[in-house]
Amino acid sequence: MEPDNDVALDIIITNVVCVFRTRCHLNLRKIALEGSNVIYKRDFGKVLMKLRKPKITASIWSSGKIICAGATSEEEAKLGARRLARCLQKLGFKVKFTEFKVVNVLAVCTMPFQIRLPEFTKSNRPLASYEPELHPAALYRIKDIKATLQVFSTGSITVTAPNVQFIATAVEQTYPLVFECRKIHI
Amino acid sequence: MAAAQSCPECGSSNIIDDSHHSQAQLVCVDCGSVVSEGLLTTTLSEEQYHMTSHSSQHSRYSERSVLGKQLYRNQNRSESGAYSERTDKEPCRNQIRGLQRVSTLCHILRFPPGVEDSSRSLFERAYRHPAFLGVSLERKEVLAGCCVLLVGRQYSWPVTMGTISSLLQANPGLMAGVYLELVEKLGVEAPPTTITQLVRSHCSSFQLSTASVPDQFSECLSKLVDRASNLVELAGEAWIVTGRHPVPILTAAVYLSWLSLRPVAPRLATSLSRFCKLAGVPLPLPAHKRLAELQDALCKLGKELPWLRGVKLDRKVVAKHAGDILKHRAVLLRRAMESQGGEEVEDSEQAPQRTLGVAEQAACVTAHSGASLSLVGSVTQCAGCEDKELEGAAAAALNTGGNEKGGSAQGSLSSPAGGSVVQCSSAEGSVKPAAMVPVKGTINSAQDLVETEGPGNCGTLPLPAGGKRRRPVFLPPCIVNPPKRRQRDEEESRGREVTGDEEISDSEIEQYIRTPDEMRQFAETQSRLDECRAEVSRGT
């Protein structure tokens, strides 16, 4: 199997985190009283609201900043954020859906081979670090696309990047590196 | 110690140093009047003594004291307000203490002098680095341990982070953070310690000599180390080591070795916790689980021993046969693959839904390259590898717990959501185009990755000997016990097209808003709860 041959890998997005602003002050007590599926975290000064479709959890601050997490695609994250803004509008707030941005995407990809982590770390220093006493995976960072990859010896790779395109780029860049360090069984 | 002074009240020269709480004072013995107070040192003459060549070169005075201001008047402060960026200044008290701590740790760990010198120089370099200048004292204390650990690893000295943190009585999380920062900021390379390097040092911590324990429990260190090393290698092949903390595995391996070297009744009746008490070693909590996993791995291989066929082999009995199992583990593993590993598979297209291991693909490649398949049972050790490579201890990573489908020789992947199937290319043959089922939340690989070409119909590949493909005997725990994944609806798994700009109807939003009745009930309940809490707090 040559690394130059092109392969198709299945990358599964497990979490998308996005933020947006409502451009108005939000009364958290009113949201906690009139909204359902709401948890009021008074100590942290925020309200957690959970939507069913899409299945996301939103953290709402009184300044109008909202962080949504739990979506499985960027489009779904936007839909969930819009639903949330609409819900706040129904509660009586003058909400405007502004400054929407996807800030983090988490994806999982599984390689069809095992990986020798000490060798992978040695050949990719200083971008890669592996401390088996601290974490079972090797950590590999790609600075230009701000992606962080956790490479497990089973072949599973967890990728975190600012958007989906960078996730794919990170997997493309990392595949030849892990391919060179795959376990070969005689 | 008092200089020749006279009391201004009574003229007596009998003046002594006395301290009122933490304040140093010069007091007249005869009349009790305070001659002088508030100096950080006793007398100016004493300070002047320290300034002479007779004094210690490591003395340093606070910059706020009168003498300190005189001494350090001409020093330039850095932008951060620290003096410590100068290379020619004397080390501060914390740095001296840190260096002493480094030396002490090196002596405890019995480092050779060269390693100790490297540790000290690394600590001095790290201490003066801007990243560690203004940090808390706790971090500086941990920094000493991190330098010792780093240098120990560079010299392949078997020392773990847990050992250093317990010696320093430091928070392991803090130690981890400081260590990673040290490696990053100083750009120092340090290979992680492999578990095989730790076997001897861990075995030597067990007090099993004839002087410490009764004869029936004592054991020779070299034999214990050899047997434990073999067990640790087997653990590496059986996916017991990967991702786990090494110390519980080592403890379990030493215990099993001790049992198997002399499986007499008193030893077999000794439990793991009692053994650790006997040997004077703390028992880590996960050691029981690692022991069970090691015993299960031995049972799997022990079933293939000819003289044990028909014998019921369980965890309690397997220690007696561990020696034989470890001696012949290569052959036993091959036999286990043949007998326990699954059905024969000759053609991938007609194959039942089964996942192929990488061992088979490697066997294909090896066969094609002319290597002998009789080496299947051989063990290959790579330098720096955590696990030894052995046929059968392979590629269950392919089996992610989702659907299994026979694919090309190289193995197929299926997503946990039950959707798409991807085929990987191999060195020979051609891969059929991937039958991609769009899955919600997955990336369409046709868009993101380059085209697939190359090899792959399994029928064109040379099959391993006998035309059999075998399932690996040992699988990673995450494959054997896959985590429960959220079951999505079939509609969702088929991937409804979501654009993010769909219209949102009022009926979808109403479910998230309480009705007026619900609001009233919620407010009443809340007020009652508050009253109850107030009563309880008043009552207590």
Notes on the structure:
- The complex is a heterodimer of chains A (186) and B (540).
- Chain A is elongated, with a radius of gyration of 20 Å.
- The longest helix of chain A is centred in the middle third of the chain and has 17 residues, at 74-90.
- The model of chain A has no long low-confidence stretch (mean pLDDT 89).
- Chain A contains four helices and ten strands; from the N terminus they run βαββββαβαββββα.
- In chain A, strand 9 and strand 10 form a beta hairpin.
- By secondary structure, chain A is of the alpha+beta class.
- With 540 residues, chain B is mostly helical.
- Chain B contains 21 helices and five strands.
- Chain B has helices at 44-51, 66-71, 93-108, 113-127, 137-154, 161-168, 172-186, 195-204, 221-237, 246-261, 265-268, 272-279, 287-302, 322-327, 329-340, 358-369, 445-448, 477-480, 490-494, 506-510, 516-539; strands spanning 15-20, 23-28, 34-37, 412-414, 421-423.
- In chain B, the strands form two sheets. Chain B has a three-stranded antiparallel beta sheet, with no helix packed on it.
- In chain B, helix 4 packs across helix 5 (137-154).
- The longest helix of chain B has 24 residues, at 516-539.
- The radius of gyration of chain B is 35 Å and the shape is extended.
- Chain B starts with 14 loop residues before the first strand and ends with a helix.
- The model of chain B is unreliable at 53-57 and 343-467 (pLDDT under 50).
- At the A-B interface, strand 1, helix 2, helix 3 and helix 4 of A face helix 7, helix 16, strand 4, strand 5 and helix 17 of B.
